[in-house]
Amino acid sequence: MASDRAKRLRRLARTLTDRFGLASHRHGVVEAAWSGSARAWTFAWTDGPTVAQVRAVCRETEPVASEGLRYVRSLSQDAVALGAVRLTILSASGRRPRVQPADVEALWRDSPFPGPRTERERALVYAVVYEAHAAHHRNSADAAEICELINQYGLAVFLRRCGAELSPAETLTAHYAASHAHPTWRHQLATMDPDALLRAVRDDPRASAALLDAALALLPELPAESAAAEDELRARRGRASPTASSRTGRPSGARPAMSHPRRTLRP
Fold it and tell me: What is the pTM of this model?
C-alpha cells in the first residue's frame, strides 16, 4: 500500500510539473520526497505556483494519496531580492524601512511565478544579488543576507550601479538629496518635491548642463513657475558646457548600459 502511494505521489509530482510548465522553468520540477523523521511526504518546488494552487490540483487529481501531504515552496534569491526591492520602495515614507525575510514570504504567498515587471526591476535584482555574492564570497545568498544588504545600504546605490535610466526628478534628487536632508531617496528611491528640486537648481550656481536640462524637463509640472524659471534656466543652459554629463556618467540622451557593481559598497 505504501509503495502504491509513493508511485501515485511521484506520478502526481510529474503531473504538477507539466501542468505548471516547471520542466522548462529555471528552478526545475516539483520534487516528491519522504521524510522519515516527520513521517510524511513533501512536495517541494522553487518560486513557481503558489501552495494554494498546488494543493488544489493535488486534491482534484489524487484526493486520497495527497491526504497529509506537506507543501514547501521555496523562494529563489532573485525572488527574495525582487520582493525586498518592492517592499522597500512601498514602505511608508518618513521612516527607514527594515524588510525581513518573513515580509518577502508574505508578499509572494499568493503570487505565482514572481518576476520583474520592468527592466529596471530586473537590473536592481541583478545588482543586489551580485553584491550579496561578492560580500559573502560565494555564489549564493540567503534571504536574511539579501534583506540586510538592502536594509543597510538602501536602493540608490544599486540603481546607480546597474546603469538604469533616470527620470528628470530622479536625476535631480540623486544630486541634491544628501544636501537637502532627503534620506528616502537613498533608501526607497523616493524623489524630492518638484518645487524643491527646481529651487535647488536655481540656488545652485554650479549646476551642470545635465541638471539644468532635468530642471527644464520638470517645468511642465510647475506651471506657476514656468515663465520666469524657464528664461533663467535656458540662459544658464546656454552658458553651460554642452558636453557636461549627468551623475551616472552618461552623456544626456545616451542609452543606459548594465555594469557590474564594485565589490566595496558605499552608501
Answer: 0.85
